[in-house]
Amino acid sequence: MKTLNALVAAAAVVAVGAVATSCNSKPSANLSTAVDSVSYALGVRNGAYFKEGLGTLPGGEVNVDALLVGFSEALKGDSTQMSPQEAEIFMQKYFREAQAKEAQQNKEEGEKFLAENKTKSGVITTESGLQYQVVKEGNGPKPTDKDRVKVHYTGTLLDGTKFDSSVDRGEPAEFGVTQVIKGWTEGLQLMPVGSKYIFWIPSELAYGERQAGPQIKPNSVLKFEVELLEIVKK
User: Fold this and answer.
1) Higher pLDDT, 44 or 160
2) Is residue 113 among the annotated active site residues?
């Protein structure tokens, strides 16, 4: 879910670019001066930039007409159905509740997936709850928590959405075994060099209740395909 501040900022910019547009009509812009033209250009640029980002809110599609009415009324000093203070309180409450609802839904879906996945052939579950499957078993040494490693990996959500991939970038990643999320730290130490494993990482071994970037939502179970290329010599 997008953060409240980002959504509010996007809404404000979109509204600035479109505030002259009535809900029931579409007047043309009079570009008789350079200031008129740059004002129109600002609206076009920002409207196009934020169109997709403002397209949905937790709970449904953005009501652009309502957004523009509220912005126009406040900008002109007209009477509004909410005071600015009431609007701020309402938005904070709305996004807080929406985030909590989404986090709980993600938690339940993740737990259901892991319970089913652990019963599948070839899937091993560790004491911490980490699940993995051996795609290819290497014959090299296993890294320790003191080592640096070089790996290729692809990370996806349970719905298949790819959020990161060193394979797509065409360059392996290098980092310390303890410089990553807990599920990676544990999983890497299970792998002999030359191995390729699939990991399913419970949220508590990943980012927990935090959102990590635009795609990894709170309480998300993450799937990684990891190939351990080498232990980097100091």
Assistant:
1) 160
2) no
Q: Please name the amino acid found at residue 135.
A: V
8 Å CB contact between 149 and 231 = yes
* 120 and 222 housed in the same domain: yes
Identified catalytic residue from 50, 132, 153, 197: 153
**Which residues have CB under 8 Å from 124's CB, separation 6+?**
131, 132, 133
Q: Are residues 227 and 117 in the same domain?
A: yes
Catalytic residue among 94, 175, 181, 198: 181
Are 195 and 228 a contacting pair, CB within 8 Å? yes
The residue assigned the tokens 């320790």 is: 144
DSSP letter at 28 equals P
Contact present, 113 and 202 (Cβ < 8 Å): no
Full DSSP string of 42-71? HHHHHHHHHHTTTSEETTEE--HHHHHHHH
Number of domains in the chain: 2
Tokens of 173: 């990643």
Range of the domain at 189: 113-232
> Per DSSP, what are the bridge partners of residue 199?
132, 224
Count Cβ atoms below 10 Å from residue 186 Cβ, excluding itself: 20
- Please indicate, yes or no, if residue 70 is contained in any of the structural domains: yes
Contact 123, 130 (CB under 8 A): no
Active site residue 197: no
Q: Looking at the whole model, is its pTM more than 0.90? A: no
Please give the structure tokens belonging to residue 58.
């937790």
More confident residue, 37 or 51: 37
> Which entry of 50, 95, 132, 164 is annotated as an active-site residue?
164
Query: pLDDT by residue (tens digit) across 91-119?
Result: 999 988 988 898 999 999 999 999 999 99
